[in-house]
Amino acid sequence: MKSEYTKQIHKFLELGFTERESKVYITLLSKRSFTSSELQKSAGIPRTKIYEVLYKMIDKGICVERQSGKIKYYEAVEPKKALHKMLEDYKNNYQNEFEKKKAVTEELAGIFSPVFEKNKTFVSPLEFVDVVKDKDQSQKIILNAFQNAKSEVLSLIKGPYVCNNIKRVKEQVREERNVLKRGVGFRKIYEIHELSEEAQLIEHFKPLSKFGSQMRVIDRIPIKMLVIDERMVIFPLQDVLRDPNELTLIIIEHKEMVLACRILFDYLWNSSKPMKM
Question: How far apart are CA 55 and CA 36, in angstroms?
Fold first, then answer.
């Protein structure tokens, strides 16, 4: 087999020939007929495999067998006919496979469409709840909530904090300032002991009062909470089971839950005192 036909062999493979069939067919084209032993040597096919290859080629209609006395000879079918035969077989096989898959598709659709129709009105309570444990991801969610606030942000604040390093603190201060500049209200309530325990952190946020941020203190906050407009509430919950310094963020987009949280916030706001600046 000449190496010059390497590219053509790859083309035959694309058409559905095997590599051995490609080599045998190209060899058959080089003269009128071959015996099996001649083919085996010329095409470089193992002696034990030559008959297997030839019989498959005969079945495909790209090779014919002739007998003269006791000797069998093998000839190539004219390329135009042989290759178009392969193409037609491919088309038929494709069509058959398509029809099978079409029938299976219709059968499955018939079985499961009624199931879908029956259950599509069911809404899982988890569809409006997200849970995040990573602090970097939690920071991104909080900053994104600030950026999308339209009317008011309400916050009940106590440690541990998502913004537990200077980079996150500066990011939150910057976004809160942007919120205030857009005319969005910002009200925050801290537990009073935070003024001494987290004084350095809180000092970064105090200057925001110049832009309209309202900060108050109260003896005790029942839960950390961030309410965005009337559409979303975020609970940064302390991980009391594994690590008290870690937080799990629960994000809920549900109007009734948000309404309940706003009522809680307003109750605490009316019970709180302005923070000394």
Answer: 11
Q: Indicate whether 47 and 180 sit together in one domain.
A: no
Domain extent at residue 136: 127-274
pTM: 0.54
Q: Tell me, what CATH number does 115's domain have? A: 1.10.10.10
Buried b (16+ CB within 10 A) or exposed e, 221-255: beebbbbbbebbbbbbebeeeeeeeebbbebbebe
Please give the full DSSP string across 165-194, using - where no structure is assigned: SHHHHHHHHHHHHHHHHTT-EEEEEEETTH
Kindly state whether residues 112 and 147 are assigned to the same domain: no
Residue 212: CATH number of its domain: 3.30.870.10
State how many domains the chain has: 2
Cis peptide leading into 160, omega within 30 of 0? Answer: yes
- Amino acid in the structure at residue 127: E
Q: What's the pLDDT tens digit per position in 63-112? A: 999 998 889 999 999 999 988 888 888 888 888 888 988 888 888 888 87
Interatomic CA distance for residues 75 and 34, integer angstroms: 7
